[in-house]
Amino acid sequence: xxxxxxxxxxxxxxxxxxxxxxxxxxxxxxxxxxxxxxxxxxxxxxxxxxxxxxxxxxxxxxxxxxxxxxxxxxxxxxxxxxxxxxxxxxxxxxxxxxxxxxxxxxxxxxxxxxxxxxxxxxxxxxxxxxxxxxxxxxxxxxxx
Length: 144
Ligand code: 5GP
Known about the structure:
By secondary structure, the chain is an alpha+beta fold. Strands 1-2-3-5-4 form a five-stranded antiparallel sheet. 28% of the residues lie in helices and 17% in strands. Guanosine-5'-monophosphate (5GP) binds at residues 12, 23, 35-39, 47, 94, 100-103, 123.
């Protein structure tokens, strides 16, 4: 997948937004959906995707939708920080396969970082236990 290509409405995140594929939800409104990453690179790895847009990456996001979406990214990042009290927080986003993107619907990663916790592999390894993800999502959503 190159940086510029056709949006695939059947990508996994679009299916989650439509409720066709399950996810462990942290937050949802008319602008964004936040859920736990199934291959967390650290404990509490959360994704925030915009709703109602066909944007494969940040470059394709309509100007008037960026602001409200980024407010949600900040809202979730603050809740992750309050709930999990990490030593640091990475908020990141990849555009195009050479940049590391693997799912082509815009999303921000929120990654709690702790002094003693190594960063696990991106988008791989064993999926996390759903009970563990549900407990984390509940903790985070309590602070939204
Ligand atoms: P990207 O590589 O596009 O920046 O990030 C895609 C993210 O989606 C990865 O961190 C990957 O672990 C996550 N992911 C891929 N498939 C699924 C899935 O089916 N469910 C959830 N919750 N996360 C997924």
